[in-house]
Structure to design on (318 residues):
């Protein structure tokens, strides 16, 4: 099978992966990344806690290394994530700031970070996980300080700093049909109608083998987003298996990866298929979901799994 990135035209279809700089120390990791993927997402090192650990002090060294690797390997970078309620520094978490000051703090961070990466980071997860599982607004430090308006403001600040960047609202459990998926649809529809510079929606697709969403529901979601003139991205794909990675479980996993690949190949507003890591050797899954593992397309020895072959097949036949 030809490497994934050779099966598609650049800019038309992204096969991406999340990573940290420490992963690049592993030669097999960096070789597999550069051979197979044409896009990368910093798994942690572009988050607020890493970029602005102290107020007004920005540390770009780790994130710059990832951007440099991408440039050296002709890969597109997706920035993740400008505004989120997790992995924020203590000065921000515990600060007692007025509404005006919180808005200024958010503007300073977004303007500084997006300007620093202007022309180097083409896609940004501007706001991540603003909705709770019932579809209401998560009572984050941003929502409590600024109300719902913080979302529109974040997009406006990002667009002002880099008018060419493609700006996305990112969340999880919004793949198929659910109150949360409907709330995400209403949110981006409202932002679009308000003239806010938003260009797409990202759904993380951290799925569980055996309980995945119906493909028809994901397709219906993609189509209503397409009607809004917005892109639909699979941003953090992994499909965790409970217990042993049996042939049956690996085949079920391959079928679901293939379904997402087919949706990406079929819909022109779906051009991102990014996995949250490359190899099961390095994945957040085992430490967060006891008894689950094996969520990615390459096993712990960097051998392609049925999931990889199933995705490759879709774009080989295309
Ligand atoms: O949770 C999975 C996705 C869900 N969507 C948003 C996306 O951003 C999120 O990614 C995960 O986001 C998680 C935080 O919420 C990240 O987890 C953090 O990952 C960090 C870097 O590896 C960890 O920080 C390290 O912790 C070590 C021990 O505690 C320390 O020794 C290290 O110095 C410190 O860097 C944090 O504890 C750990 O909580 C995961 O790696 C990362 O995969």
């Amino acid at each position: 099978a030809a490497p994934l990135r050779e099966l598609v035209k650049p800019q038309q279809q992204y096969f991406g992966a999340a990573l940290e700089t420490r992963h690049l120390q592993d030669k097999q990791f960096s070789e597999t990344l550069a051979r197979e993927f044409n896009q990368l997402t910093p798994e942690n090192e572009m988050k607020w806690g890493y970029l602005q650990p102290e107020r007004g002090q920005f540390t770009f060294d780790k994130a710059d290394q990832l951007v440099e690797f991408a440039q050296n390997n002709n890969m597109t970078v997706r920035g993740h994530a400008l505004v989120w309620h997790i992995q924020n520094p203590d000065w921000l978490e515990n600060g007692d700031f007025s509404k005006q000051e919180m808005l200024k703090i958010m503007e300073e961070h977004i303007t500084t970070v997006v300007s620093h990466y202007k022309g180097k980071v083409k896609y940004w997860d501007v706001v991540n996980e603003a909705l709770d599982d019932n579809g209401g607004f998560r009572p984050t430090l941003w929502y409590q300080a600024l109300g719902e308006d913080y979302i529109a403001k974040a997009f406006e600040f990002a667009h002002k700093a880099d008018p060419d960047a493609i700006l996305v609202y990112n969340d999880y459990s919004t793949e198929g049909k659910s109150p949360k998926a409907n709330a995400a649809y209403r949110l981006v529809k409202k932002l679009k109608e308000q003239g806010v510079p938003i260009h797409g929606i990202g759904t993380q697709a951290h799925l569980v083998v055996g309980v995945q969403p119906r493909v028809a529901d994901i397709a219906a979601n993609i189509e209503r987003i397409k009607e809004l003139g917005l892109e639909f991205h699979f941003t953090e794909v992994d499909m965790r298996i409970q217990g042993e990675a049996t042939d049956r479980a690996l085949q079920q996993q391959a079928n679901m990866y293939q379904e997402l690949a087919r949706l990406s190949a079929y819909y022109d507003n779906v051009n991102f298929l990014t996995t949250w890591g490359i190899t099961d050797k390095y994945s957040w899954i085992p430490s967060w979901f006891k008894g689950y593992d094996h969520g990615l397309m390459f096993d712990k020895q960097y051998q392609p799994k049925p999931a990889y072959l199933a995705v490759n097949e879709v774009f080989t036949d295309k």
Notes: The mean pLDDT is 97. The two ends are 14 Å apart (CA to CA). Residues 16 and 274 are 4 Å apart (CA to CA).
